[in-house]
Amino acid sequence: MHAVERAALVARAHGACLDLLHAFDASAWKSLRAVFDMKHLAGEAPREVEQRQRLATLAESLAARGGLDVESHFGLGVPAAAIEARVKATQAALVVVARRSDPGAAGVSSTLLRVLRSAPCPLLVVRTPAAAVYERVLTAVDLREVSLRAAARAVELFPKSTHRLLHVIDTAWEQEVWRGRAGAEPFGATLRAIHARAAQRLQALVQELGLPPEACAAVDVEVADAVASRGIVERAAAWPADCVVVGRHGQGLVTEALLGSTALDAIHHAACDVLVVP
Length: 278
Fold this sequence. Notes:
Layout: H1 2-14, E1 17-24, H2 26-36, H3 47-64, E2 69-76, H4 79-90, E3 95-98, H5 110-118, E4 123-126, E5 136-140, H6 145-157, E6 162-169, H7 171-179, H8 187-208, H9 213-217, E7 220-225, H10 228-238, E8 243-247, H11 252-261, H12 263-269, E9 273-277
Parallel strand pairs: 1-2, 3-4, 5-6, 5-8, 6-7, 8-9
Antiparallel strand pairs: 4-9
């Protein structure tokens, strides 16, 4: 329910329609029933009917709160495929999913992994209860196009939040590059110069977001030294952030590799929600 409540908050803030989707894998359920469940012999309602009724009740409950247009859709088949088809059919601007169906369970679901790699729109992975709009949103920026797009989308989706743009510098990698340069200045001076350039570029990015002057003044920037994925998680915890925003890089096998070092690490280890922007 955390994901549903967060989706409702975002939809209400933007005056958007909330589309509830429940994907029911009938083939898997029938296999489980054949082995474990004998209650149907006593005339119990089919599981599919029960799930449809619960989805309809949830949609009615959310709509009754006022200020929210809610539609519900019950899909049959593999959940990830049903989500992909629904996103395409509705041209969804945002997909909101739970990290796992059981909030206390470790890791992420296979459904989430598949949707994460293929979603054409931003994907918000919800881990925490949605009591209110996000107060603090941390966007990881590596100064490539996809991360710049992520920063713009974060501000667009969460206009009432306090935003911080974070650029993480891998000092070990930078030092290896520095060692290969003949006659280079001391590494400390090189690192300070890298920090200064990154901070300057982040400030320029804030101006490129097209925000009103007072909104630009409210966007903070930070440059940190760490391995990228670890630095994002650590800085999010230290602030602390309610949501981390990262860009999704590449396609195919490239996506697989880069997701492992950035978005997936954030989803696995950050104590807050994570927005992944393609």
